[in-house]
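Box S1 | Example of a co-folding query
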Amino acid sequence: MDAERREVADGHLVIADGRIAAVGAGAAPTVPEGARRIDGRGKLATPGLVNCHHHLYQHATRGYAQQATLFQWLVALYPVWEHIDDAVVAAAARAGLAALARSGCTTSTDHHYVFPRHAGDLLAVEIDAARAIGLRFHPCRGAMDLGASAGGLPPDSLVEDRDAILAASADAIDRFHDPERGAMVRIALAPTSPFSVSGELMRETAELARSRGVRLHTHLAETDDEEAFCLERFGVRPLEYVDDLGWLADDVWLAHCVHLNGAEAERMGATGTGVAHCPTSNGRLGAGIAPVPALLAAGAPVGLGVDGAASNECGELVDELRAALVVARAKAGPTALTARQALELATRGGARCLGREDELGHLSVGALGDVALWDLAEAGFAGIADPVAALAFGPTRHVHALLVGGQVVVEDGELRTADPVTLAADLARESARMAQVAA
Ligand SMILES: [Zn+2]
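Box S1 (continued) | Returned holo structure for zinc ion
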């Protein structure tokens, strides 16, 4: 996934000071004194995968509203989400990030937009979780200010005041955003969706983000219902609505973009606006299939996202490669997307969405030492001719090793930064406690 898309059949990778110091064919030319060696024989090394859209707290509410459309699903879940607190978010975030790590992800975003009063410092809690699991993290300070009484979808009890949102957004940047190269934590600002935030909040958030040099994220064009909402309320389709608000630009990436026409896909490419493609979630909610080939042809950055675990109970990023392939091909035939293109979405494409294509998403000298090592010698992969096809089309897989900035997160197929049994027990307990309170 470097600039030349080199594929090395038998090679080496050297990581020093958190960055790739050497990569290429054969044995490493020089190995730093005291270096730790990882034997990669029979394995496939890829750049660590980049997850462009998630709602980690939803790991605590999986399996609800199984036959619902997005709007029905949200209306069913908002009353449960009113009861999240710091303990629920901590357990859900740790479990969700561990699932991402095992599935090859080294950098994840999170879009957190539910901030019940007195729930605690939820953004700090999930940043702590990312530090503990060891992933690079881009939390997005989400927000909702358009409650049901003002024509929005969420209940009034879950929306925040606009000035409070802007103050909390500035505070999140002050406390957590690291603009330096190699950053482990970067903040983005992310009003939630056209049907849960006001246009004023979208505009003012964009001004704040641009004055502070952070990126912008939101959901857009996910469902027919959203399109109908925008046509009725604003008289325009979702993309034109956010275009008028200054939200199509190369510092913005949008989740979903399922319902775009050809001219709108072109507009995404012309403005350099990124897309977080979430094929499993879009299938789970019956939302449709995003026009990824048209977006790629237009030059738009396209990354992959697992989306929140309440609409993708799996939450494992490598599975989105296969999902992206099969939905694109189900819609437009077997040449619609290749296995290598799917891997590119999950690596280079995601890095572009986050504005970090210089240092993430490829194995090149100088890039960050974020590497996934996949064991393709396992029985299920026996005889698959091409390692990239094995990864993208093959059996469900977990990484053999995962390195973030050269630090070991997974080794010998096991998470080294937390105990998965404890993570699962904590999540089950907090999820049940919240469900009980909500009931
Ligand atoms: Zn989402």
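Residues 221 and 260 are 7 Å apart (CA to CA). The longest strand covers residues 105-112.
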